[in-house]
Design goal:
The chain is of the alpha+beta class. The chain contains 6 helices and 15 strands. Strands 5, 6, 7, 8, 9, 12, 13, 14 and 15 form a 9-stranded mixed beta sheet that branches. Helix 1 crosses helix 2.
Length: 305
């Protein structure tokens, strides 16, 4: 969506509607999450007063929304090599290497995937804001594998809705400690911010957590542990890492939820990613090759499900 100021008037029939819902219904190019972000920035005014998403309309209000120009801010294009799995006019899918931060943050002002995408792509969507152009979802710094970025707002909105609606197919490979007694199962325990260690996530069985569902399947026993396929039905922060720790088999190399040991990173790989193409609606699926450190740990070059 182009920059500018957009004005609307609520009617009697809109009474009781939440402000973000009202705007999302009238501006198809902006997702509700993007509208909410603009509200947090004070860019949505109701009768001249900044409002947040919880605001409910009474009818008869004058509503103004300001969409800022999409610029790179301090993000500069950097010639960082990317392994592209797919690219078209709407999106790009890459095999993110372990060690690459997805977007700038304190301590990582440059050298990120965003900097690489700004160099590689002529255009990226603006829904993620000036700090995260094109970014639809994230992988931890140490996690390798499939990641999709959007080149325009329409593609970004479609992908965001698919992720939120649990329509995206997400399969990971994890090398976990020990030998699992069961060969497959489903872990469905709620996750939330750890009550003591605020930089971590934890299992919250007494309330306050959000639903988190992981299907897991043992693929092979390795000299160092077990290769496990994890299929996500939700997308909680650190979901696989916390769920595998909960099972007593933390991801190897994970110094937050387990031990670093001999590995230089957490052994987690976003193996497969599938979704409906934002423009055509056709299902598309991608597979990221097994990374070298997985092969060195004994994972076969061709993994069979």
């Amino acid at each position: 969506m182009s920059e500018g100021c957009f004005e609307f008037s609520s009617e009697a029939g809109d009474a009781g509607s939440r402000l973000d819902h009202f705007l999302a219904a009238r501006i198809g190019e902006l997702s509700r999450s993007r509208i909410q972000a603009l509200m947090e920035e004070g860019r949505v005014l109701v009768n001249g007063e900044a409002k947040l998403r919880s605001c409910k309309l009474r009818g008869g209000e004058k509503i103004a929304l300001t969409v800022p120009a999409v610029i790179a801010s301090e993000n500069l294009p950097e010639d960082i090599a990317l392994e592209v799995l797919h690219e078209d006019a709407d999106l790009i899918v890459i095999n993110k290497p372990a060690g690459l931060v997805v977007h700038p943050a304190p301590g990582h002002a440059g050298g990120t995937l965003v900097n690489a995408l700004l160099h590689h792509c002529k255009e990226l969507s603006g829904i993620g804001g000036v700090e995260r152009p094109g970014i639809v979802h994230r992988l931890d710094k140490e996690t390798s594998g499939c990641l999709v970025a959007a080149k325009n707002d329409a593609a970004h909105q479609s992908l965001t809705e698919q992720f939120a609606g649990r329509e995206v197919r997400k399969t990971y490979l994890a090398i976990c400690a020990g030998i699992l007694k069961k060969k497959k199962g489903t872990t469905n325990v709620p996750l939330g911010r750890h009550p003591v260690h605020r930089q971590r996530m934890g299992v919250l069985l007494r309330g306050g957590g959000r639903e988190a569902v992981t299907d897991w399947l043992v693929l092979a026993e390795l000299p160092c542990g077990t290769l496990v396929q994890c299929t996500l039905h939700t997308g909680r922060t650190h979901q696989i890492r916390v769920h595998m720790k909960h099972l007593g088999h933390p991801v190897l190399g994970d110094e937050v939820y387990g031990k670093r040991g001999k590995f230089s990173r957490q052994m987690l790989h976003a193996w497969k990613l599938g979704f409906e193409h934002p423009r055509t609606g056709n299902p598309i699926d991608f597979t990221a090759p097994i990374p070298p450190d997985f092969l060195e740990a004994g994972v076969p070059g061709k993994v069979e499900r």
